[in-house]
């Protein structure tokens, strides 16, 4: 039986972050503490500008906190070491953004293979097989060789989900993953994201404005003025 | 990017062809001076003056220590014992042949005109070995000259001025006597100054005319490796104790002129590569600005700053690779094409066609110039791309 601490995929302690310069400087995050557990889907909700996305980017090591600690699988990631950030991102963290950010010159399968290429743990054939398998999981098994421009908005976002899972990350961070989709596609993308993550035992954190989607998550974290209010 | 590639191709091509042209004319000039005045000239004998050095134990001026005082060297005109000097210098590995020459001022009188000039008394076989005189003969032949004890070889400009030709005779005056000589051959070196003043005659005839029964004015030396002539000259000066003038020193100002022209052409043509580099810089910069989202997403996947930087440097490398290969091919083609163009020229040398001489160094220099400029042009955008903070970019695109 796994202990509670072993289930923690990502943790942050007393995170502070300021944005802007001089008089425009704003204290966006004010001592945020959070633990994300494997196999659990959490949603952060709150008004625009409350610091949701900023927190997500800090947890995803895409930005640096002013103070506080971030621990991935129990190990602290130093805030000032870009190389460590990059390595941990590549191995343990997957991202899904509001926009799919697929590289237009590459096919769906090649886009999914990009994180695997960087990690370099699989052969070319293994990468191809894995990309096709992930695309099948999100319902795009027939469209692996299509370019992003030949896919619908919902399909593009599902390719982005497959890409985020490419290296079997411990944590999946999603910033408004359905914000750009209609209701039908939103549900399809959300279901793909949460179902796959649960199957593979990943911690999922979703930033969303959509209360219906948030209600479907295991945990809802409400944020206001740079702090969790519950 | 295609425009930048075209610029690199033309820049490299023009660089190679201009350098080949200047090297071609420089080579022809060197060949001309080696063919007329030889690689090294051994001229006046050095007479060192010595200064005494007083030792601490010396009493008054009584000392046995003395050293050569190079500042107060004196020169005795001409080479008094040419056979001894030639025998000693022929021991040097790079010395090919040597020809003693008597030189003096003369007056020439044809049936119609008078002219002044310089007579060169030579041993024909020796002189052929140190010069291109045989190849420079246009009318008559070296055989005719060899067979005629009172024969002379005259420059074509002088012959034109005196209005004489092969087989005709002229009177030559020197010191206080005059002799009649027959024109055995007429030569053209392409060097106007030589072609209108220099007259070759047999050594014995020159000795008699100039009243110089002993010694010679100088010894002309040819060498196997002309680039080694400076060192050889220095050795000869020490061994033979005569002042020597290697071709590099005699023609120093011309060599400097060619060097300056080559540098100037290289700088001018490099501007084409520089402009292409600027074009490439702005194109890559635009790509970086346009692809910030893609860069950010790659960074989010674990791609390092170096990985991102390398993407843009590779674009530069690809342009550089094709630019230099096509540029080298273009340079070779232009150089070949130019060498077929007629360009009659005489004065400091004679030629009928454009002169070119390609060396590997021209290609290396052009490629190095392109590498430096393209890498500088690629580096700044690549560094800019690598510095992008993914969080800032993605936050900026989010609603």
Nearest-integer average pLDDT of chain A: 87
The structural class of chain B is alpha+beta
Number of E-state strands of chain A = 10
Number of helices of chain A: 7
CATH topological fold name of chain A: Rossmann fold
The CATH superfamily of chain A appears as P-loop containing nucleotide triphosphate hydrolases
How much helicity do the residues of chain B have? 40-55%
Largest sheet of chain B, if any? 6 strands, mixed, barrel
Multimer state: heterodimer
The 3D shape of chain B can be described as elongated
- The helix-strand sequence of chain B is HEEHEEHHEHEHEEHEHEHEHHHHEEHH
Distance between the termini of chain B: 34 Å
Architecture overview:
The complex is a heterodimer of chains A (230) and B (399). Chain A is α/β, with parallel strands linked by helices. Chain A has a single domain, classed as Rossmann fold (3-Layer(aba) Sandwich), CATH 3.40.50. Chain A is built from seven helices and ten strands. Chain A has a six-stranded mixed beta sheet, with helices on both faces. In chain A, 48% of the residues are buried. The mean pLDDT of chain A is 87. By secondary structure, chain B is of the alpha+beta class. Chain B has two domains: 174 residues, no CATH class; 128 residues. Chain B contains 15 helices and 13 strands. Chain B has a six-stranded mixed barrel, surrounded by four helices. In chain B, strands 12-13 form a two-stranded antiparallel ribbon. Chain B is elongated and about 105 Å long. Classes of the chains: A alpha/beta (230), B alpha+beta (399).
Index terms:
heterodimer; A: about 230 residues; alpha/beta; 6-stranded mixed β-sheet; 4-stranded antiparallel β-sheet; about 35% helix; B: alpha+beta; 2 domains; 6-stranded mixed barrel; about 55% helix; elongated
List the helices and strands and how they pair.
The complex is a heterodimer of chains A (230) and B (399).
Chain A: E1 8-19, E2 26-37, E3 41-45, H1 52-59, E4 67-72, E5 75-76, H2 82-92, E6 93-96, H3 108-119, H4 124-137, H5 153-164, E7 171-175, H6 183-199, E8 203-207, H7 211-215, E9 219-224, E10 227-228
Parallel strand pairs in A: 3-8, 3-9, 6-7, 7-8
Antiparallel strand pairs in A: 1-2, 1-4, 4-5, 9-10
Chain B: H1 2-37, E1 40-52, E2 66-76, H2 82-89, E3 95-109, E4 114-122, H3 124-130, H4 133-136, E5 137-140, H5 142-147, E6 151-155, H6 156-162, E7 169-174, E8 177-187, H7 192-195, E9 198-202, H8 203-210, E10 218-223, H9 229-240, E11 242-246, H10 247-250, H11 252-290, H12 292-300, H13 305-339, E12 342-345, E13 351-353, H14 360-387, H15 390-397
Parallel strand pairs in B: 4-9, 6-8
Antiparallel strand pairs in B: 1-2, 1-10, 1-11, 3-4, 3-7, 3-10, 5-8, 6-9, 7-8, 12-13
